[in-house]
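Q: Two folds, back to back.
A: First:
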Amino acid sequence: MNSSRSAVNTTDEKSPRLETLTRQNTGLQENILMVDDHPENLRLLYQLLSKRGYKVRPTRDGKLALKFALSTPPDLILLDIMMPGMDGYQVCEQLKACPQTKDIPVIFISALNEVFDKVKAFSVGAVDYISKPFEIAEVVARVENQMLLSRLSKEILAKNARLQAEIEERKRIEAELRDSQRWLSAVIKTNPNLLYVYDLIEQQTVYINREIYSDIGYTIEETQQMAGAFLPNFIHPDDLPGFSEHISRIETAKDGESFEFEYRIQHKNGESSWFLSRDTVFARTADGKPWKILGTATEISDRKQAEL
């Protein structure tokens, strides 16, 4: 900057109001790159911002500033306009054209006070404009305002990234769950045994893997009209006491215990088929009582016939 005027209005250098403008402690030292060809301006801003906890890197050359910004991207750039060689407008344009530096906020600090100059500064990508001579309080306030906006923007980007990662993870888990469900469904459908879930509290069968009612001569409408559980309705009367004892054992079962029970299922035509059930508790009530039974039933009629 070639202006001979002082860059700072010294009337408020010792103002008590500055005590309220110190930077909030973020736990990380934020970096500011200062670009001005006037050594006095660099010294003044360096002292001003360093005292407030910023890590300040001064340079008098626009091309060198671009190298610094690319190698060690700062959190904010304070940029003069009137400089020899590459002026501030050209520096800002190149910063905004580079993917690695395009998001770094730039504040112009210049003695150019015409509306045209300020409009051009914003058109090349500046976020703010400070006129020289500047007030110290104004510089501190504008710098801290941009730093706050930058911190908030980074937090939002980080949260969005975490949210996107969580969404992708959920999609992955849901896809794996769908695959597992398809696999389990295929296993259940092709299993020759009966698989069922029995509710001990409601005393009814809440799931069964195939339409056994049709195997024993009933329609689904007929079974729906029957009261209580599905399987107990078809157990041979002589086997009902054994079924009750079987349920009693399960009601006092520990986790991991399984129980077997042999019984006959009556067909609608009066015939019977022998089955072997293996049952275990897989769900309990809030107070730890057995609630739902997971069971398998295998037809053993041929074995029973051979035993006669």
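A: Second:
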Amino acid sequence: MTRPRILALADLKPADMTDRLEADYDVIRDIADAGDVTAVVTAGNIGLSAAQMEALPDLRMIAVNGVGLDAVDMAQAARRGIRVSTTPDVLSPAVAEMALGLALACTRRIAEGDRFIRAGAWEQGGKLALGRSLIDMRAGILGYGRIGRTLADMLRGLGMQVLYTARSEKPGAPDAFRPDALTLARDCDALFVTTSGGDDTRALVDGPVLAALGAQGIVVNVARGPVVQTHDLAAALRDGTIAGAGLDVFDDEPKVPQALLDAPNCVLSPHVASATEQARRAMAQLVLDNLDAHFGGRPLPTEVRT
């Protein structure tokens, strides 16, 4: 029996999940050789452009290994009737966990303390500056989707008061609503950015928002780099406008601006918020489930409704 041909622009993790993909499908890696494929596997940070879709005249389905869609030309997909699936929910705990970890690293000076010891400063009698208690801070969640709500549950479990901003107030939500990013930043101490990327949220966290957060505040971004205006963030870190930042995402990955590399009050992580074995395996399984449904003529389990 001939295996269906698919184009894979991203690998599945762990490696045995890619082995399963290659066992079930004839996997093409070069788009130039994939003119007849009906399905593409990609990732949130890779996406699929309109030009790439044009090179695939038979394309009927895009399986995104992740939840980000800002790199997928959704308008073109809709015009051509191409179905798009993502891997929601299964990565939310891992991303929320990373957001919490970055916040703790900022407030308790964990990364700074590591550098302090390795540089020999402790042995030489140095004293690390005092940190702050995260659980005594008021949390603000910018983007109250699956990841944001999962994070809110974690923070409430620590005893923190949680506020949130979304496109509209969520009936029955256990957390207090704020109508915009500026108001949210003014009313919280730890601003967690979990909103979706794209033009609608570009530079949503800018100079005025960071100023409203204040000199004791921290910002944590596990969403998309461009949601936070990098120049304004670097200036806020340098000038003491805010106390610190924890970043897992950047504008032009894997390049990180020198101003952020030079900021001792900024904790950096290489876009690995969902990178646990458990989360990646579950994500890969959803990709395989959606491909199986596509080739079986069934509804996609996690199709994005546009």
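Q: And?
A: The mean pLDDT is 97.
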